[in-house]
Every structure is written in structure tokens, then in C-alpha cells.
Design a protein that fits this description.
Layout: E1 9-14, H1 23-37, E2 41-47, E3 65-70, E4 73-78, H2 87-101, E5 114-119, H3 125-135, E6 139-143, H4 161-176, E7 179-182, H5 188-195, E8 228-235, H6 242-251, E9 258-265, H7 269-278, E10 284-287, H8 293-302, E11 305-309, H9 322-329, E12 334-337, H10 341-348, E13 352-355, H11 360-372, H12 374-391, H13 394-409, H14 412-415, H15 419-426, H16 443-464, E14 468-472, H17 478-484, E15 489-494, H18 497-506, E16 511-514, E17 527-533, H19 541-551, E18 552-563, H20 568-576, H21 591-600, E19 604-611, H22 615-621, H23 632-642, H24 646-649, E20 654-661
Parallel strand pairs: 1-2, 1-5, 2-4, 5-6, 6-7, 8-9, 8-11, 9-10, 11-12, 12-13, 14-15, 14-17, 15-16, 17-18
Antiparallel strand pairs: 3-4, 18-20, 19-20
Helix pairs in contact: 1-13, 6-11, 9-12, 16-22, 16-23, 19-21
Length: 662
């Protein structure tokens, strides 16, 4: 979990929220809880519990809104009529009702930094836009399913009037959002190519799973003497092909010890019950009862195999149901009836068997295979559990969402004082591939200055071999690229969004966020090394170093390179020939000022080295012309000799500081 000196405050707007069933409610809860676990403050505006059958509990009736807490999350529930989610008209009434009633909470929500329009798809954007305008806050739009694409059927064509209207709504929502957070990589191309959305504002954050609720059974009970239970649990919605399950059950009706359980409720409940009776299935139970999340977890743990019977929509399925992650968390093998992303995901994580949608014979055959090969079934279940533990816990997806919010819609209040820095570096030219900001010549800067900086930093890091290092003020990512090569986890932070985007391209294995280096959004003692090149003189030095002290573990190494205020060449150059990247607030430091700030921040100075007596001046002088490359070795040797002379070295252009956090 991450902790920062100032909490990120998130307002989530979601019609569906537990105890509502379905993936949208689960997704909304997981993100809200994950953000809270990462030290964010979250307030949820949700509809009265109603999905899928429209039965609203007594305590909400005849009220405009109700405030409650769900697992520590503040939830403001607002009115919707008691209608089941069946048919286009009833759904439209529910959506419109929530869009209006969600505004009842306006007087109750005051301070927040970002709005997350969680669900329903696209339509949650409209109340979010009203909150965004009135509160002057950015909006992140969640995408659980692709609408209107998901609605295409033989009776509803893509070029029909209703689809054209839906397409217009989709384009408006996507373009108005400051940020888009789809649950699947399969959605990205459609959102960007069809609706003209910049790929930079689309960030895939998967649904995740609460591993504390969805645990592993004590043992995997499968034998010839035990009943082999195949379970589906969730909404009985049109997205699922229950005929495939029913026909598979019919195929296996004469096989002893196999039981099918369909648990849930929804618009297809009556159809499933009627069809099961028609087929006279004695090995299948339909339990049309909505149960709590805790009961869902128990049922998953008690089953032997879990089924996801997605309907064949005539095109590859681009989304991934949150149900899959809960199945994996239960450490049970998955029978995934799907083409597209869900099937690919199950195959890649080696957590189940992929079956063609509608092929009930293949489903029956796969069930028999798992029953007869319990070691294979157990291996598939363990593999799925390990994957979600390593990648998809709600803590991890909450952290991803938090970083995306900070990167794209970081609180403007915190950044107003740094507007000059942001504006200047917005215009900086960054070399593709290297991450270098173009402000010096190519020969001296690359072969003398940068090479020496890399050697100095690498030699210090090799001695301590840190596991996690922060690139403070990462710029275009040149240093992060070097740090990544040292085989450690690299996190970069910079105030400028365009530079962070460059850093992500330069060092793709690093993790980069937009943020204020004087208010670092990281938990205490979370890095064992910190490096920063020419960053402290842009900041309140003591404040930045105090934050470095807070996030560094005991014994951590801190490396900084800073311009020397006493270097006459640099001082004259700043005055007479300022670079495009010089800002009003930056102030080069003297050795006394630097030592005072480091000591005051409770850091211990191991070494301060004075480097580069004249090479920076030459690099600036020859930025418009080509310096003779043959002279590079002479410059390098001359500088190293001058650095040993007592008076000359104190006038060098740069300090190399090595400090320790005790």
C-alpha cells in the first residue's frame, strides 16, 4: 500500500454497487476498496440496491437518499424505482432515474480531486460531467463493456437510428473524459480508432479480486466417491449461454457423481428453470437466490470446477469478466466457454480449459476429463490463484488506479505553484530513444558529461545493489534507462506530463507517474535508493530532501548531481545566454547551502565531489556547431586533473553528492 503526505480524494459514481450483482458492481467495489487501501479517500454515489431483479430493501423505500458505509467506504445511496433490469425501456428508465437522483448528493460532497464515472457504461459520464463542471474537477471514465458495440444483434443493426444515437453518446463520453480506464486491452483499439480518442488517455486497469474474501479451500476434494460439482454463480443475464450448460448436463445425466449448480438471479431465471424442467434434468440445481459476497466465496470454494458460459455473439469477446478473477482466487479449474479475450486469458494463465461457445459436447467431455484427472484440475486451480495473487489483488489494482489518476489528473491545486516549471518543460525537445532533453551539443555532452555521470552513479549502485530505486525528477527518462540496466525496480516521478510520457517510452519497464517531488505519493520507507540529476535546485531543497528521507529505508543510498552556483562559466551563461529549459524558480546551490539542507533533513553526507570544471560551458558553447570528436579524451583527462586542484575544483560546475539515510 502507498501512503502520501496528502491523500488523493476520489468521487466514484456508480449505479451498481454491492450488494448488487454483476461485474460492474464488483469492479466498482474492488477499485474503491483498493484505492482506500492505498491511502486514498473515496466517496461513492450509488443507486439503492436493485440489480438484477429490482427488489429494493425496505430500509431504502420512500427515501431520496441514504448514507451508509460498506467495508469502510462511504456510500451515498440515491433513489431508483423498483424495476427489474429487463428490456431496453426499463433499463433506460433506471439509467435516467439514477442520472437525476445522483445529483441529490451534490450538497454532501465537497472536497475531491477526481471523479471516477464507474457505471453504467458511458451513461455515468453525464452526472459526472455535471459534478465536473460545478466542482471544476477532471473525470475518469470507466469502461466495463463496449457500448453500443455490445448491443449489436441481428435485430439491431450498426447503421440503425438507435445505434447512431448510441454511437454519438459514446463519442461524446469518450472525448469529454480526461481519462479512460477500460477493464480489457481488447477495448483499446475500438475506443481509439472508432471514436478518435488519444491513446495517451486510455489506461487499462483490470477488475481485480478481493483475496481476503475469496480464499482457497483447505483441500481439493475430488475422488470417485465424492460428487464432482460444476458451479456457475452470478447474474442470469443474456450475456451467458445457459443452454450450453443445460445440454452438457443432459449429456452427462447417466454419469454418476456429477452435479451442476446454477446460482443467481436475473432476466433469464424463468427461462433457465423452464428449460431445465423440459430437459428433465436430475443432475442440475437452479438456486434463484441472491447471496452475499462472503457466501459466494464459500460456494466457489466448495465446488470442483467453475464455469463461465459466455454466449457466442458472432464476434470475438473483447472484455474479461471479473467473475474469472474470483474463480481463479478460489483455486479451482475454470471451464471457459468463450472466444476472444477470456479464453486467451485462461490459456495464458494456465488456469482452465477453453471451450468453443455453444459446444455442449466439448463442455461435457472437459468436465469428465477434470473429474478423472484431479491432479491436472488441482494444478490449473493453483496456477490461477498464483496469478491473481501476483497481479490482481485489489491492493495492486487500487495502486495502479491511484497512479493513473495522479499521472493524468493530478490535483491542480497541488501543481499551481509549479506552473512555470510545467510550461517551460512542455516546450522541451526530447530525443526519441535516449530520453535526453536537447539543450547541449552532442559530442561533449554525450561523451564527456553524460558518460562520466553514468560511471559515477553506476559505481555507487553496484556497491549496494538496491532492489527499488526512485528517479527523482525523471525528465525524459535517460537516467531511468540506465537504472533499469542495473536490474532493479525503477520508479520515476516528474511534474511534467509530457516528460513522463517520454520516460515511459524510453524505459518501458520502469513505472512512471506525474507528481510533485516535494509531496511524494509513496509510503514511508519504500525505496532503498534515490537518484536525482539537476532536480533539487528547482525545488524547496529541504522540503524535497525531507520527503526523500521519509520514503527511504534505513541505510538507503541517495545520489544527487546539482549545478554549482559559484561556477563562473555557468553563472555567466545563465545570465547572458539562458537555455530554453531555465525557469524562474530554479536557483543553483552553493556547497554550504546543499550541505545545510542535507544535514537538516537528517541525511548523512558520505561524499561531495566537485566535477566538470569547464565541459558544461563548452557543451553550451558548441550546441549550434560540431565540436571536434578527436579532442574528447583531452577534455576528459584535463577535467579530472583540474578536479584535484583545491581552488579550481570548488569552482567546478557540478556537485556529485552521495548521502545515506540512517
Amino acid at each position: 500500500m502507498e501512503k502520501s503526505s496528502s491523500k488523493l480524494r476520489v468521487l466514484a459514481i456508480c449505479q451498481y454497487f454491492p450488494p448488487d450483482m454483476g461485474g460492474s458492481a464488483t469492479r466498482a467495489y474492488n477499485v474503491a476498496k483498493g484505492l482506500m487501501l492505498n491511502n486514498c479517500k473515496v466517496v461513492v454515489i450509488a443507486a439503492f440496491p436493485h440489480y438484477p431483479i429490482g427488489k429494493i430493501p425496505k430500509e431504502y423505500r420512500w427515501k431520496a437518499l441514504k448514507i451508509e458505509f460498506v467495508d469502510g467506504i462511504k456510500v451515498i445511496r440515491t433513489f431508483v424505482p423498483p424495476l427489474p433490469s429487463e428490456g431496453l425501456v426499463r433499463r433506460a428508465i433506471m439509467f435516467a432515474s439514477f442520472s437525476i437522483s445522483s445529483l441529490f448528493a451534490l450538497p454532501l460532497v465537497k472536497n475531491f480531486d477526481v471523479i471516477w464515472a464507474a457505471n453504467p457504461n458511458l451513461l455515468s459520464m453525464f452526472p459526472a460531467m455535471i459534478y465536473g463542471v460545478l466542482k471544476r474537477r477532471p473525470i475518469a471514465l470507466n469502461v466495463d463493456d463496449l457500448w453500443p458495440e455490445f448491443l449489436y444483434t441481428p435485430s439491431i443493426k450498426e447503421n440503425s437510428l438507435i445505434m447512431k444515437i448510441a454511437g454519438f453518446i459514446a463519442k461524446l463520453a469518450y472525448l469529454k473524459a480526461n481519462l479512460i480506464t477500460p477493464i480489457s486491452h481488447g477495448y483499446v483499439n475500438v475506443i481509439c480508432e472508432k471514436y478518435g480518442v488519444s491513446q495517451e488517455k486510455v489506461h487499462v486497469i483490470r477488475a481485480g479480486v478481493d483475496l481476503n474474501k475469496f480464499g482457497v479451500a483447505n483441500s481439493y476434494l475430488v475422488s470417485d466417491e465424492n460428487t464432482f460439482t460444476v458451479l456457475y454463480i452470478g447474474a442470469f443475464s443474456v450475456a451467458y449461454d445457459f443452454d450450453q450448460v443445460l445440454l452438457a448436463a443432459k449429456t452427462l445425466e447417466n454419469v454418476n457423481g456429477i452435479e451442476f449448480v446454477l446460482q443467481g438471479e436475473g432476466e433469464l431465471t424463468n427461462y433457465v428453470k423452464t428449460r431445465a424442467k423440459e430437459l428433465r434434468l436430475k443432475n442440475l440445481n437452479v438456486n434463484d437466490k441472491i447471496v452475499s459476497r462472503e457466501e459466494v466465496a464459500k460456494l466457489l470454494s466448495s465446488a470442483d470446477a467453475l464455469i463461465l458460459p459466455l454466449r457466442d455473439l458472432g464476434m470475438p469477446y473483447l472484455g474479461i469478466s471479473s467473475k474469472l478473477y474470483e474463480y481463479q482466487a478460489a483455486a479451482k479449474p475454470i471451464l471457459c466457454c468463450s472466444s476472444g479475450q477470456p479464453g486467451r486469458y485462461v490459456s495464458e494463465t494456465n488456469s482452465g480449459i477453453v471451450i468453443k461457445p455453444g459446444d455442449y459436447k466439448a463442455l461435457a467431455k472437459s468436465i469428465l476429463y477434470l473429474r478423472e484427472n484431479y491432479k491436472v484440475a488441482e494444478k490449473l486451480g493453483v496456477s490461477g490463484r498464483q496469478y491473481v495473487e501476483n497481479n490482481l489483488s485489489i491492493e495492486k489494482i487500487g495502486l495502479q488506479m491511484k497512479r493513473v489518476f495522479q499521472f493524468n489528473v493530478y490535483s491542480q491545486k497541488n501543481l499551481l505553484g509549479l506552473k512555470d516549471e510545467i510550461d517551460v518543460y512542455d516546450k522541451a525537445r526530447v530525443t526519441v530513444g535516449t530520453g535526453e532533453i536537447e539543450e547541449f551539443d552532442k559530442i561533449i555532452f554525450s561523451n564527456v558529461i553524460r558518460r562520466r555521470e553514468i560511471d559515477l552513479i553506476s559505481s555507487e549502485l553496484q556497491a549496494v545493489k538496491p532492489e527499488r530505486i526512485l528517479d527523482l525528477g525523471c525528465g525524459g527518462g535517460w537516467l531511468s534507462k540506465v537504472l533499469v540496466s542495473n536490474k532493479c525496480e525503477v520508479v520515476g516521478i516528474d511534474i511534467n506530463r509530457s516528460l513522463v510520457m517520454s520516460a515511459r517510452r524510453t524505459a518501458p519497464t520502469g513505472d512512471f507517474i506525474v507528481g510533485d517531488c516535494m509531496n511524494l505519493p509513496f509510503r514511508d520507507k519504500s525505496f532503498d535508493a534515490i537518484a536525482g540529476i539537476a532536480i533539487l535546485h528547482h525545488l524547496n531543497t529541504y522540503r524535497a530532501l525531507s520527503e526523500c528521507y521519509r520514503i527511504a529505508t534505513e541505510g538507503s543510498l541517495l545520489l544527487f548531481m546539482e549545478p554549482n552556483k559559484l561556477n563562473p562559466v555557468s553563472a555567466l551563461g545563465r545570465k547572458m545566454f539562458p537555455l530554453e529549459t531555465h525557469t524562474k524558480r530554479e536557483k543553483p546551490l552553493s556547497s554550504y547551502e546543499l550541505i545545510e539542507s542535507i544535514t537538516k533533513a537528517s541525511l548523512v553526507i558520505k561524499e561531495i565531489r566537485h566535477v566538470f570544471p569547464f565541459s558544461f560551458g563548452l557543451a553550451r558553447l558548441f550546441r549550434r556547431s560540431r565540436f571536434p570528436e578527436i579532442l574528447v579524451p583531452i577534455i576528459s583527462i584535463s577535467e579530472m586533473l583540474l578536479e584535484k586542484l583545491p581552488l579550481i575544483k570548488h569552482l567546478s560546475s557540478t556537485f556529485f553528492v552521495v548521502a545515506i539515510r540512517n
